[in-house]
TrEMBL record:
It holds the Pfam family Glyco_tranf_2_4. Residues 166-187 are annotated as: Disordered. This is Glycosyl transferase family 2. It comes from Donghicola eburneus. The lineage of its organism: Bacteria, Pseudomonadati, Pseudomonadota, Alphaproteobacteria, Rhodobacterales.
Length: 745
């Protein structure tokens, strides 16, 4: 075993580094307005030390030339390259950022045993004193390994930090790519010795100073597990050398443990899980340098060299580098949403072959007792919605909903007493919303309480929806039975909102909502952001842990292959939507079979009461002019739901035959009318009513399709009168600069 150390002498260099594309520059460093270029060492040989010459430099979009004097460019390290150490060897070039010495030794052993590694060049990110201490431990680990007795190792360290000057340790979850809840994290203290690296030209630097004469070079880090050669995975060096003049692309998939045992540190063999909804992988490479190729080595690729089409997979074992505490031992849930993790048979076999017993995912089974029934239960929250209760119940009873669980709070119009009556009649289950005792928003408290209610626990299908939302089935006879028949295998069905405006209706009218309002957003309404929100009918078989406002939450990843989630056109939802999606996108929206009519504003007078009442979810946000502007969409006419009016009116008439129900319904209507009159007696609400019923707002309600997202974030006042009142071409578009800060839902 041959083990050597090198210190990169760069005491005067600034901390922030960027990679130039200039062929003559080794690396380029920026410090404020100052830029320093470091040339390839061979360009310095034979030059007059006092000579001035220019080199081209490109950093980002900046291109220029720099005047250089030889004494200023002695290189980041020694005067001459040291390519003899690695000449003719199969090498790995790696960056270590606090991985344990034992992990580094295991990693090297694996590459030597299975891929024929012969030499390693490793940049240690630690500050000099720690790098020196660690290198002694690493040398001892390697010296004690029989498998590594012929390995040549060179450890590099620098006397300046190479990381981002404003970010914390790379091990902190804030820097972990999949960590949840970053918007709620406190930013860690800056740690440029261990923060994400900015030495973008490291691989090119390593090539010119050390690896120019290597037989073959693999770019990989000590947390990256490269599978042993088998029928699916080749020897990486053999693959690179088999086709000279090309390089092998490596694609890394982030692997995680399910859990780490108490008082234990993570090992390679703990990493048995992958994300089922993983995005793009990590690019790395393996390349056999050719003397006649003008190659430039980068992080993810070798510039100037064609890549082979076949890819080699590797696994980035995330708990070996990332976590709240350096050195591992962190909770996996701090690094990745555990609801996204599924076991990999391949990684599990590797762990078991190594004699390791990793923590496994707990067993999970779906419920079998209600997979053939189709009874539906709705859970909803209400406050002062009295006049609209009966129609909403009648409509959903007509289309096949059998069970209703209603939570109310702080009602003043008779809504709560009306539901008490309906509960005595056996039509609904009514509960007082426990949001104060639970210290939650009303809707979230209701959902948490609903999970314990037999009416929801025993239902075959469940959905959370509001009294201003109507399920509009477009197949068969318009019932949920027809929908389930058309989608026999689905166990989740997302119903995308169709935002219905006030259709220029100003006064409150107690007649059915679905008959009054017939204007709405177009189907392809990408904006405002809320236009494509959805609610989800889901079969109650235990695929998720709890109910959510828009869809169930807490996916049980063991059951991910049993999810059959479709959109409103019956087309499968992609896996990337399974955990957190709450709205449709251009690729997932669908209205062909079912949609959700969302009458968010109703008449202008009724909206005054809604604004005064407040919201059940975003309770701290005003439903003012900006909300009316976003949700009042009168772009086009759609009367599809009106085919249900005769059946709804018949069901309402049947319910109103009960004199107590009729009296309660009429009382709520009277209270709503009186509430409107009280609000209209105030100057504030009278002015607001004038604003939302004026010509300007009515014209804006038909122009949504022509506005950019920033218009809805900023509010209606940002649209000039000349845009509103001038006749515009059919394809006109208007937007403004995006506002900074949090945007309202």
């Amino acid at each position: 075993m041959q083990f050597e150390r090198r210190r990169l002498q760069a005491a005067s260099l600034p901390e922030v580094l960027a990679t130039p594309d200039a062929p003559d520059a080794l690396c380029c460093l920026i410090d404020g307005d100052q830029m320093t270029a470091y040339l390839r060492p061979e360009l310095l040989r034979g030059r007059d030390p006092q000579a001035m010459f220019k080199v081209p430099v490109q950093v980002g979009g900046f291109k220029d030339s720099m005047t250089i004097q030889c004494p200023a460019v002695d290189g980041v390290v020694g005067d001459a390259p040291e390519t003899e150490f690695f000449a003719g060897k199969r090498c790995v070039v790696a960056i270590r950022n606090d991985e344990r010495p034992a992990i580094l030794r295991e990693w090297l052993e694996h590459l030597v045993q299975h891929h024929g590694l012969e030499a390693a060049l490793i940049l240690d990110r630690a500050e000099p004193a720690k790098a020196d201490r660690d290198s002694l431990q690493i040398e001892a680990e390697i010296a004690g390994s029989k498998r590594l007795r012929d390995l040549k190792v060179m450890m590099l360290s620098a006397d300046v930090p190479l990381g981002h000057p404003e970010l914390g340790h790379e091990a902190h979850p804030m820097n972990a790519p999949d960590a949840p809840g970053k918007d709620r994290m406190d930013h860690p203290e800056a740690d440029p010795w261990h923060s994400p690296i900015l030495f973008g030209s490291f691989y090119e630097f390593a090539r010119q100073m050390y690896l120019e004469r290597a037989r073959c070079v693999l770019a990989l880090d000590p947390l990256d597990l490269l599978p042993a050669p088998d029928g699916r995975h080749p020897n990486v060096f053999d693959a690179a050398e088999a086709q000279p003049g090309t390089y092998v692309q490596l694609v890394g998939h982030r692997a995680y443990p399910w859990a780490i045992r108490p008082n234990a540190l993570p090992e390679f063999a703990d990493h048995i899980c992958l994300r089922f909804d993983e995005g793009a992988g990590h690019g790395r490479w393996c390349y056999a340098p050719q003397p006649d190729q003008a190659a430039v080595w980068r992080w993810r690729r070798v510039v100037g060299v064609p890549a082979r089409q076949d890819l080699i997979r590797f696994y980035r074992c995330m708990a070996l580098r990332y976590g709240e505490e350096t050195g591992g031992g962190q909770q996996v849930s701090r690094l990745v949403p555990k609801s996204s993790l599924v076991e990999s048979d391949f990684l599990l076999n590797i762990a078991e072959a190594a004699g390791h017993k990793p923590r496994r995912l707990p067993d999970a089974q779906t419920r079998k007792d209600n997979q053939r029934r189709n009874d539906v239960a709705i859970v909803t929250t209400m406050k002062n919605e009295g006049p609209f209760i009966l129609e909403w119940l009648a409509y959903h009873r007509v289309i096949g909903v059998e069970k209703f669980l209603v939570f109310t709070n702080d009602c003043t119009d008779g809504t709560d007493t009306f539901f008490d009556l309906l509960q005595r009649k056996g039509i609904v289950e009514h509960r007082e919303n426990p949001f104060r005792e639970m210290d939650l928003k009303p809707q979230h408290a209701a959902l948490a309480a609903a999970e314990k209610e037999p009416i929801m626990k025993n239902a075959a299908w469940c959905i959370c929806m509001d009294v201003d939302e109507y399920i509009n089935v477009h197949v068969g006879d318009g019932t949920l039975g027809a929908l389930f028949k058309a989608l026999p295998d689905a166990n989740m069905i997302s119903l995308t909102w169709r935002l219905y405006g006030n259709a220029d209706v100003h006064e409150f009218d107690p007649s059915p909502i679905i008959g009054q309002f017939d204007r709405c957003a177009p189907e392809m309404a990408r904006k405002p952001h809320q236009a494509w929100g959805f609610k989800t009918l889901f079969r109650n078989i235990g695929l998720f842990k709890k109910m959510g406002v828009h869809r169930p939450k807490g996916l049980k990843p063991q059951l991910v292959d049993q999810i059959n989630w479709v959109n409103g056109s019956g087309k499968p939802m992609p896996e990337k939507e399974y955990r957190t999606a709450w709205r449709s996108t251009a690729s997932t929206v669908g209205y062909d079979m079912v949609s959700l009519n969302h009458y968010a504003v109703r008449s202008a007078e009724s909206f005054l009461v809604k604004r005064d009442r407040g919201r059940v979810n975003h309770v701290d946000r005003d439903q003012g002019l900006a909300y009316w502007f976003r949700m009042n969409n009168n772009y086009e006419e759609n009367r599809s739901i009106m085919r249900m009016i005769p059946r709804v009116e018949a069901e309402m008439a049947r319910l109103l035959e009960d004199p107590e129900i009729r009296a309660a319904h009429e009382h709520c209507i009277a209270e709503h009318r009186a509430h409107i009159d009280r609000l209209m007696a105030t100057e504030n609400y009278r002015k607001f009513y004038g604003d939302i019923t004026g010509e300007r707002m009515e014209r804006l309600s038909r122009m949504h399709l022509h506005f950019g997202s920033a218009v809805f974030h900023t509010g209606p006042d940002c649209v000039p009168d000349e845009v509103v009142f001038k006749d515009q071409p059919a394809d006109f578009f208007f937007t403004v600069e995006e506002m900074e800060g949090e945007q309202e839902f």
